[in-house]
Amino acid sequence: YPSESLVQKITEDNQIPVHLRVSVSLQYVAGLKGRALVEFFHGNIAEVENEELRHLMWSSVLFYKTPNVEVMACVLLSTKAIYFLLDDSFVRADEHQSDFWNKENLDCENSSFHLSCCFVLKLNDLQSVNVGLFDQYFRITGHSADHIVTCLTRDSYNTHTFIQQLMAVLSLLARTPSPEPVDKDFYSEFGSKNTGKMENYELIHSSRVKFIYPNEEEIGDLAFLVAEKMDGLTHLPSLNILLYVLAFQVNHIEGSAQNTSSLQPKTLILTSSDLFLFDEDYISYPLPEFAKEPPKRDKYQLADGRRIRDLDRVLMGYQTYPQALTFVFDDVQNQDLMQNLTLDHFGE
């Protein structure tokens, strides 16, 4: 059993984000506290008797095989594996991936027994961890397409905490040491360096798992992409990205019995002149080593873009985190009119 401080920490972390809905089975898990939570882990999830529960986190997750289905999961990190306790609605929504999930015992519609699927990624199978821009998400990669999962924490603190806990657990693994580096001659040492492309920052853990962080070029590439979307403004000498955040766009459902709304995942990018919403592929990039062809869609697809000068007002809700913001823009028919007037009347 873990120490009292660890039990208290895991209990505090066992809270479903208020803006996301989950199934009854996951609500049951979120209601567990203290020792009951640890006993639930050992009795229902743990695969080995002597493994220890070290960290718990609630997060939206994406799988490489189903890149369009974002599902809520309780992520449990132990000394042996990472467990993703999934919302059962994910399996029903994913009928075409019959080979990915074993559905033999999923017929529990008429039963009071609630079942959750648990996806297991053993630490020994872990190869790399890619941390997204500004620690908004991270991707865990195993040895095949079935073993690639992205956790969309949308929170740099949760990402940082999980990565630290994962590194600590990986340090306990007994893996064979890496072979001694072979002494290279002059030509092999300096001949392959001049590729002209800056690689991402890599931290190779003692367990030989790679932790890969984005470099400055990713922000530069993103700024170039944003500049391409800004009609007539690509001549700006410097375009600075002021904010990059993973958010949800709220779409109200009219005609429903209750005042319900659906949340569409979006990447919000703010520059000094524009506000953009992108549909981003969080799971396919960078390409895994076994990928034989590029993904079917680009990493960033523009969903909406508005000029800051057309922003009329910002409405803020009074609820606690997560904060709801409503941006109200003036509906200008001819957007170039004001820009041309400015240039004509106020100089170059």
Question: In terms of structural class, how would the helical and strand content be classed?
Answer: alpha+beta
Quickly count the domains: 2
Largest sheet: 9 strands, mixed
Strand content: 25-35%
Name the strands of the widest sheet in spatial order. 4-3-2-1-7-6-5-9-8
The CATH topology of the largest domain is given as PH-domain like
Radius of gyration, rounded? Answer: 24 Å
Domain Nischarin C-terminal PH: 241-347
Protein name: NISCH protein
GO molecular function, one term: kinesin binding
GO cellular component, one term: endosome membrane
Provide tags for this entry.
globular, NISCH protein, four-stranded antiparallel sheet, PH-domain like, 348 residues, alpha+beta, 15 strands, PH_NISCH_C, PH_domain-containing_M2
Topology record:
Layout: H1 4-13, H2 24-30, H3 34-45, E1 53-63, E2 66-78, E3 81-86, H4 89-92, E4 117-122, E5 128-131, E6 138-141, E7 148-152, H5 156-170, H6 186-191, E8 201-204, E9 210-213, H7 216-229, E10 241-252, E11 261-271, E12 274-280, E13 300-307, E14 311-316, E15 325-329, H8 335-345
Parallel strand pairs: 5-9
Antiparallel strand pairs: 1-2, 1-7, 2-3, 3-4, 5-6, 6-7, 8-9, 10-11, 11-12, 12-13, 14-15
Helix pairs in contact: 1-3
GO molecular function: kinesin binding
Main location: cytoplasm
GO cellular component, one term: endosome membrane
